[in-house]
Design brief:
By secondary structure, the protein is an alpha+beta fold. The strands form 8 sheets. It has an 8-stranded antiparallel sheet with strand order 5-6-7-8-17-13-12-11, covered by helices on one side.
Length: 573
Amino acid sequence: MQHFDDFSFDIAEIPFSRRGAWLDLSRVTGLHTLADDIHLVTHTGGMHAVFRLEPRLDGRRVDAVVRATPAVLSWSVPGGSVEAVFGESGIRFRGNGLGLSFLAPDELTPFTGGYLFVDPLDDSVTLTSYESGRRYRFTTLTGQPEVIGSEQVGVGERSLSFGSDAPWEVLVEEIETSAPPVSTADDFDRVADARRAEFRQYCDGLIDGEATPTAIKAAYVLWSATVAPAGFVTREAVLMSKHWMDKVWSWDHCFNALALAPSDPDAALDQFLLPFDHQNTVGALPDSVTHSEVLYNFVKPPIHGWAFAQLRARAARPYSVGQLQEVHTRLSAWTRFWLDYRRKPGHALPYYQHGNDSGWDNATTFDEGGVIEAPDLAAFLIVQLRVLADLSEELGHPSEEWSTAERKLRSALFDQLWTGGTFVARSVATAEATLDSSLLNSLPIILGEQLPPEVVERLAASIGDHLTEWGPATEPVGSPLYEDDGYWRGPIWAPATVLVEDGLRRAGCAELADRVSASFQAVCEKSGFAENFDARSGAGLRDRAYSWTAAAYLTLRADARQRALAPALAGER
C-alpha cells in the first residue's frame, strides 16, 4: 500500500488542480499540445492558457525538477524551491531561493490577449483576459514583484516576476469585474495540510479495498477534474478532463456517477442529473455542457435508465421519493423524445442521425451512412422502458405506456435487426444492413437475462473475438478496418467495457465478464487513465487524464473485490 503523502504524478499527463477549481497548472495547453513549461490554465469560457510559468535563478531561466502531488506542486533546484497549493479562492505560490515569472501572451489586440495593470484600490497586479472573459488578480503576501508591461497595449512583454534573492509569496485568483481586497491569508503549510486531508478523505470513501498507487491515481483524476457550479454547470460536476476535453457529455456523466455512488450518493445524483438541467422542450438532452456552452447539435445514447438502476443499486443510501420523482419526470421526457422524434412514421425502431448520437462517433457501423436504426439504441431504450415501468409502479404512476412500448420495441429489435447470427443496423432510407464488425453491434448484450440463450451464445462469441489482452477492442484487431489510434475503430474505451461486462454478467457469462474486467483493469494499471487505449499495445491514447476511464477502473475493481469477498461473507452468515 502506498501512503497518500508519497503519491505523485506526471504533470505532463495529469493537471494539478483540486475539487471545485476551474483553474489548473499543467503542461497541456490545448488540443494535443504539450508545452515545455507549466502554464496556469483556466476552463472558464473554454480551455485557455493564461500564463506561462518560468522558474528563474538570479534573473535567468533555469531548469527545475517538478514534482506534483495532490496537495502541492513544486519546482526545485539545489538550494531553492517554488511551491504552489490551491487555497479557497485561488492558487498560492511561494518561493525561497528560486524565483518565478508569470508571463502572459505578448500580443494584445482588440479581441485577443491580456491587458496588465496595477489596481490603485489595493495595489494588486491584474490581467484581464479576452479569451476567458475573466481577470487574474495577484495579491502579494510577501516580497516585491517586478511588473513589466503594465498598461501596455499592442505587442510587448507582460509579466510579473518574483526574484530568487528573498522569500516571496503571492495569491493568484480568477475573478470577475472586481472582488473584495485580500486582507488576510492562512498559513501556506496549513492550506497544504487541508488539501491533503481533503484528498485522503475523498480516497477513503471512493477506493474500495487497498489504496494502491493506481487506485489513488484514479481517485486523483476524479477529484481534480471536479468543478464547482458555475456558468451553465448548474451542479458540482466531474468534467471529462481538465485538459481539452473539459465538458460533461450526456452519457459520459453516467459512468462517473456510478463510481461516486457508494461514497457520495448526492454527488452521484448531481452528476447524473446535470445534463437534465438543460433538457429541452421536446425532452432531448444536450450533447454536452460546459462553463459557457451548451451544445444541442447532437444527442447521446439513452443509457440513463440502465445507469440509474445501477446508481440505485450502488448508492450508499436510498434516494428519497422526491429525488425518484425528479428522475422519473426527466427519464419520461427523455424516453418520449426517442419514441416521438427519432422514429420514422410507421417504423417501430428509433434511429440515430449520426455516429456522434451513439457516442461511437466514427465506428465502422456508420461507414455507409449515419441515419440508421441501430441495435444498441433499441437495447438501451428497452432497458430504459423497463426501468421507467418499474419506477412508475413504485411511485404510484401508470406504467402501461412504458411496458407496452418495451414489448413492441423488443419484438422489433429481434424481428428486424437480428439475423440469426448477429445484430445489424439498417439504413432508415433503404433498409440495407450496414457493416456489422464493430463491438457496437454486440451491445444488445446489455439486455442480459432477457436474452434467449442462443443469442447470448452468439453475442458472447462476438465479444470474445473483440477481446484483447487489454480489453474489448471497438473493432476486431484482425479487421481490415481496424486502426490502432482510430478512435472508435479499434481502441479500447471505458464505457463500452463497462456496458459489455455488466451485460455478460447478467446474461450468465461470468467467466468472460471476469476476463473483460481484468483486462481493462490491467490496461489502466499499465497506462493510466487515457481517453482510450491501443488495443494491441495497451498504450494510452488522446487525452491522458480522462475521468470516465478512472471511474470505470474504480467501479470494476470494487465489483471484483466484492465478488471475491462474497463466499467469505456468505460463510459468516
